[in-house]
Write a structure and sequence with these properties.
Blueprint: E1 8-21, E2 27-37, E3 42-44, E4 47-49, E5 52-64, E6 69-79, H1 97-103, H2 105-122, E7 133-145, E8 151-162, E9 175-188, E10 193-205, E11 214-215, H3 217-220, H4 232-240, H5 247-253, H6 256-264, H7 272-279, H8 300-304
Antiparallel strand pairs: 1-2, 1-7, 2-5, 3-4, 5-6, 7-8, 8-9, 9-10, 10-11
């Protein structure tokens, strides 16, 4: 499937999960999220938030492959959208670290999926060396503004499953299998819902290295009209049902709504600076209530909002 994402680039969110064998038989898990804003700046929370890296979050953990339990979690956030300031009441995006550690949606789902596939392909004791990779999954969502002012979201999920191999081996001796998912979704801004959606996936193995793409119109046809507001996760799970084979597709689709929140900040920045100057914004542009920790109802940013500040977008 050729992903034809045409329009002005706005934002990219990249998420990755890597599982690596440890000497003690456990697995190291490393997850990363990067939000890259591609244009403009945003007058918000008494600051000027530029383009570039908006969020950079790193999550590390240890896994017992026998029980699929994820523990010893550590979180780092080198870059956040909101640092602690007087306007934020001394709060920052780093404050709810315990909640982020407790969630880890993509990490938890990927770990469960990877362990099940690893047992199917290589048995209970694959015999990997310390430092060998087990799986790498990347999810990339690109947002663009089309000529007709719609938002387009391009989804690419790429998963590589590694086979146990000696320290010196040919690259393809390490190949276990790969999964690719691609999608293109139009966002209906009038309804804040999915418009037309295209989805396809491809599984490649050593037995079928040139596997063809499979059209997933059976799922895509259910998405137009599904709201991207609160509750979208439940709606997407209902659309896909309980098929274990569709869990990666579900994981990828669940990343679209959070990315859309970030895309909006870069959607139409040209007139915002002039308006912010003219109207004397303080809090300025904001997210929907409860769209994240900093924009929660009753939080300091909501409390600091003045009559001259615009309505949340």
């Amino acid at each position: 499937m050729h992903l034809d994402l045409r329009g002005h680039p706005l934002h990219t969110r990249s998420l990755s999960v890597t599982l690596t064998q440890r000497a003690d038989g456990r697995l190291d898990a490393h997850a990363e999220v990067v939000d890259l804003r591609k244009r403009g700046f945003v007058p918000v929370a008494g600051e000027l938030q530029p383009s570039g890296v908006v969020h950079h979050m790193l999550l590390d953990g240890e896994i017992d492959p026998r029980t699929a339990v994820l523990d010893a979690i550590a979180l780092r956030q080198p870059s956040v959208a909101f640092e602690a300031t007087a306007v934020t009441g001394g709060e920052s995006c780093r404050d709810p670290a315990d909640r982020i550690q407790g969630l880890g949606h993509l990490l938890g789902s990927t770990v469960a999926w990877a362990l099940a596939r690893d047992r199917e392909r290589f048995g209970e004791q694959p015999g990997r060396r310390p430092g060998e990779r087990v799986l790498r999954r990347d999810v990339v969502v690109d947002g663009a503004e089309s000529d007709d002012r719609n938002i387009l979201l391009g989804l690419q999920l790429t998963e590589l499953h590694y086979a146990p191999a000696p320290a010196i081996a040919r690259p393809m001796d390490r190949f276990g299998a790969s999964l690719e998912i691609r999608g293109l979704a139009t966002v209906d801004l009038g309804r804040y819902a999915f418009g037309p959606v295209q989805l396809a996936e491809r599984w490649r193995t050593t037995a079928d290295p040139n596997a063809a793409w499979r059209d997933r119109a059976d799922v895509a046809a259910r998405l137009p009209g599904v709201s991207l507001m609160r509750g979208v996760s439940t709606a997407l799970r209902e659309c896909l049902g309980e098929s274990p084979a569709d869990r990666p597709l579900q994981d990828g689709l669940l990343m679209l709504a959070p990315t859309l929140i970030q895309v909006f900040a870069a959607l139409s920045p040209d007139g915002w600076s002039e308006r912010a100057l003219r109207e004397g914004w303080l809090v300025g542009l904001g997210g929907q209530p409860d769209s994240c920790w900093m924009w929660r109802r009753g939080g300091p940013l909501e409390s600091a909002r003045r009559p001259e500040d615009p309505n949340v977008h």
